[in-house]
């Protein structure tokens, strides 16, 4: 929605305002959609939104896509192309262009008028049903999904002994040295929701609390009631006083109570630095060797906790495969080592059924894991929600290169401009924030010397479910027949290196697709000539692409990101010069010997990845070019680059 509002504002500031009818309708669309966007951001994918409101927001998003497609198509027609003819030929060409612009202006006026009527209908529906005032009809009290962890049976826990020992060592190291042993020592446990931070903190707390004069375990939660938390802390530590007028009085009373006592306090589930800054005021330094444990899923909060005291950060990791199997067998079969023999055949039958996805989704929802992860998702600001949902295009365990992801986000229009920063710098800050919030996991260095990232399987399952619900990304497995949305916006084809994968006509006939990505090597070559709205085209896994398959790309005027990796591609079409918005072109593994001369018309190209290819003359016209790989330069070109 943000990118659409920017484009509507640009139209009002440009030559298109000379058409008074178009100007009036565009102004209406911008103002009305701005109001709708405010409502959507207020309720953005929140659990508190009821089904009517969610359905209305989904329709608004779909309409926003349609409006943006119309505006982009119109602006692509009337934009001036570089290298246009001059003289008599130029006069004829420009006259024809003005005639086409006149026809285009008339067409855009009609289309915008129709879209305006749809916006009015949606606005009226919101008022008619009072959707912006609607609240969830679920009157049941919200139950903290972490509550069972507070009373977990120790005998049923798996994989906690190692982390327990490490955290206890962090809390007790240097105790033999009186210079350090008497100071407050803190350990902050950090990791994404559902990994067992609360359970681990409780187990450590139970093991060492006997060494302290007073102890307390308090939970902060996403929307903390600070005064109640402070009062609970005071009572939990053993004070008889529990009622105070304000937070300041409670903090003073806690500090007085702790003045001559050695204490252990666990502050669980901290969501904001503001909450921590208030709660740390009670942690009196009295020289008695007090210990603090905090848990959070946000790395910056963990760092803030540690900076306040002599602290250590403990990154909690998912269970190993061995421990995961042990936990599964214990919970399902009450057997620590193996599946009971009389259930083995049934287990195989269940595991091999291809139509069990819905049933397993119900299991996922019932165990509470999804609710825990959704708490983290709903806490994200809107722009990070969008960027995280986009990761649902990737298969499980896929190693995501950050530079590629950043370029995709920019091509999709997800990155907002910030004063004094390039778009890739803003996108990098988005990526860093998702890592900081434990939604993306940094992994090892790849073969090219850079880091890669992964999305945990449970997080991926949740965002795939949300993406499908909002028609944000459509994932199609080549082996399965699924119900497709009427209008696919972003398509991820995941073939898993299958030779018999099938791409149905329901996919190839789509014309609203903005992003097409294929994962898994396949002999299938998708027909994408109808995809005029494409922004992202990634066919790196299509090894059998040939020259004739890509002849249509010159008509995809919105294309910003294109990856082709086929040895059968020996040349790019001359029409590639029409792609005035193209920012990344990666043909590194194609058999291309030279680029067409029209490539110099790609004025917005930032990244060009080729393999031992000679660049055409005048490539210096591409002033935004920042990254070039494996090119062959003439002496003149080399001197130009050097200068």
From TrEMBL:
Keyword annotations from UniProtKB, A to Z: Coiled coil, Leucine-rich repeat, Nucleotide-binding, Plant defense, Repeat
Domain of life from the UniProt record: Eukaryota
Q: List, alphabetically, the Gene3D superfamilies matched.
A: 1.20.5.4130, P-loop containing nucleotide triphosphate hydrolases (3.40.50.300), Ribonuclease Inhibitor (3.80.10.10), Winged helix-like DNA-binding domain superfamily/Winged helix DNA-binding domain (1.10.10.10)
> What is the protein name stated in its UniProt record?
Uncharacterized protein
Q: Per the UniProt entry, what is one GO biological process?
A: innate immune response-activating signaling pathway
Q: Which organism is it from?
A: Digitaria exilis
InterPro entries, per the entry: Disease_R_plants, LRR_dom_sf, LRR_R13L4/SHOC2-like, NB-ARC, P-loop_NTPase, RX-like_CC, Rx_N, WH-like_DNA-bd_sf
Organism lineage reads as: Eukaryota, Viridiplantae, Streptophyta, Embryophyta, Tracheophyta
Residues in Disease resistance R13L4/SHOC-2-like LRR domain copies? 513-633
Q: Which residues form the Disease resistance protein winged helix domain?
A: 393-460
UniProt lists the family membership as follows: Belongs to the disease resistance NB-LRR family.
Disease resistance N-terminal domain sequence ranges = 1-82
Positions of the NB-ARC domain: 182-336
Q: Which Pfam families match?
A: LRR_14 (PF23598), NB-ARC (PF00931), Rx_N (PF18052), WHD_DRP (PF23559)
Q: Does the keyword DNA-binding apply?
A: no
MF annotations from Gene Ontology? ADP binding
